[in-house]
């Protein structure tokens, strides 16, 4: 294309996850050919979001206010604190469970090669929060990846130092899954974490 502005638009769209050169090109052509009003609305909302959405000073999730609605709500159980890697993980827990506690969002997971250490994850802020003696149980809901497991181990140490009970989300065979189709790692983890059946 001979249009530098079009090339810049296509290149800018590639910052989105899962969007390669061809997909970015299709998106750019679509908004210019068929939905310029939608593109203007998207640009306005994107600019407003980037300018006005920050992080909650208490839990680090996305918020337009210094304290997010979840942290500010008196209906949430302050004795339960669920630690997740990202705001999207927080949303998944909210939508799929009846959890009524509060959250702490790490905004990543331990990954020294990517420059993500305890400081970047806000571990000092989490430790200070646990030191307030309001939290009884720290629910560790990091992803079951190598980095997520390392992060979970660090979080359990922080909880232990604060005399807070640490629990971890169960991992294993999905509901409705058949053993022959479960990957080896998942099946091994589920087998190792088997529980007593109460009569």
Account of the 3D structure:
- The chain is of the alpha/beta class.
- It has a domain at 93-170: Dna Topoisomerase Vi A Subunit, Chain: A, domain 2 (3-Layer(aba) Sandwich).
- The protein has helices at residues 4-13, 21-34, 36-52, 69-72, 87-96, 123-130, 146-161, 184-192, and strands spanning 54-55, 62-63, 77-84, 101-105, 137-140, 165-168.
- Strands 4-3-5-6 form a four-stranded parallel beta sheet. The protein has a two-stranded antiparallel sheet with strand order 1-2.
- α2 crosses α3 (36-52).
- The model has no long low-confidence stretch (mean pLDDT 91).
- Give me the side-by-side strand order of the main sheet: 4-3-5-6
Inertia-based shape:
globular
Residue share in β-strands: 5-15%
**Poorly predicted segments:** none
CATH arch. level architecture of the domain at 93-170 = 3-Layer(aba) Sandwich
The first-level CATH class name of the domain at 93-170: Alpha Beta
Share in helix? 40-55%
Which tags fit this structure?
single chain; 199 residues; alpha/beta; Dna Topoisomerase Vi A Subunit, Chain: A, domain 2; four-stranded parallel β-sheet; two-stranded antiparallel ribbon; 6 strands; globular
